[in-house]
Amino acid sequence: MDVEIVLKLFVAAGLGLLVGLQREWTAPHVAGLRTFALITILGTVVGLLDPQSHGWLISAGLVAVAAMMIVGNVIKFADSEREPGLTTEAAGLVMYLVGVAIALDQMEMGVLVAGGTAVLLHWKKRLHRFVRGIGKEDIRAIIQLVLIGLVILPVLPDETYGPYDVLNPFEIWLIVVLIVGISLLGYIVTKFLGSKAGTLLSGILGGVISSTATTISYSRRAARMPESSQLAGVIIAIASTIVFIRVFVEVGIVAPDILSSVTPPLAAMMGLMALISAGMYFMHDREATQVPTDKHPSELKAAILFGLAYAAVLFIVAAVQENFDDEALYLVAALSGLTEMDAITLSAAQMVSQERIGVDTGWRMILIGFLSNLGFKFAAIALLGPRGLMLRMLAAFGIAFAGGIAIIFFWP
């Protein structure tokens, strides 16, 4: 017998045993350890024989497995008060198709699906707790993300418009989906961690969601409770550091070809911010805290406003690049970065990727946007927070600003 066929049968048996072990371990089910192994092997055997039947044999095997699982379910629960579930039956059909995929030389896909199925089955209680923790507003936020990403995006035209040939409705809205998805993920994680989040994690999540919103929220909190000024400063500093992780993710998705070029100077700035944050973190008294979660990031109105802002920045950058020198681009970056860095980061990355501006100009625009954002945050702290917090952040942001200016002018 062909060694490759033997290998496929062994892999199918192993994956079937893996999923069957999980089903056998949790509770009595229609199918267990041996049954799942046999179902997966059946899929592989049928897949190997199918070329001669043009797909009919695979279809017949799928129907047979489904009928077997249904009959077994009916017999098992006929005299039981428990409600019959369909999870094991669905897993049986999935594993049959995993066996078919292995037979058709789709080994990677088969292993990935089988492993994901085992994990999904094992996480039953965790997933149920997750669902119970979701409220009406959270469901609404998720549905709005689906609307933004799966309903609106596909119908937008994928072609450029405007005098500078940079406004592509599909690409602009794709960026909106990216930003909303990142923010919604951070929001969901924050909601479920809640008061369990310590200072460090609060700063990280604050940076993922919105470092500017985190700064404003904790400035107001410190104004109400001046004794929390030290804590607020640490969280604001950490959130401002994590902004660069968000920048790297955005650049890596939008323009992966330039990521290695823009990373070194931005990573240097992130390193400086990390040192400042670490110093503040180890000097403050640890206490549990909670990241504000009162804003849903997938509001359609907010998404549309961000899309318009991003398109405006993209258009202005293209117009300035066409008619002025790089110094004018830096002014655009400073103005755009005042409240959030997403728009200037994404527009600069896209322009560099399209070779409309140089790499050095692109990362400097992003860094200038960051420094501008620090200035806006400090203004918010001075306006909303107590004097103690303002003095702490004046020192922290002052060092960061000086370091950023040095990187802009002296980076080789």
In summary, what is this structure?
The protein is mainly α and 412 residues long. Helices cover 78% and strands 0% of the residues.
What features would you describe in this structure?
The protein is 78% helix and 0% strand. It is mainly α. The longest helix has 26 residues. The chain is elongated. About 1% of the residues have low confidence.
Radius of gyration: 27 Å
| Helix count, DSSP H or I runs of 4 or more residues | 17
Q: Which structural class matches the secondary elements?
A: mainly alpha
**In angstroms, what separates the terminal alpha carbons?**
63 Å
- The tally of strands reads 0
Instruction: Specify the helix fraction band.
Output: over 70%
Largest sheet: none
What's the rounded overall pLDDT mean? 81
Which consecutive residue ranges, at least 5 long each, have pLDDT under 50? 290-294
Query: What string gives the helices and strands in order?
Result: HHHHHHHHHHHHHHHHH
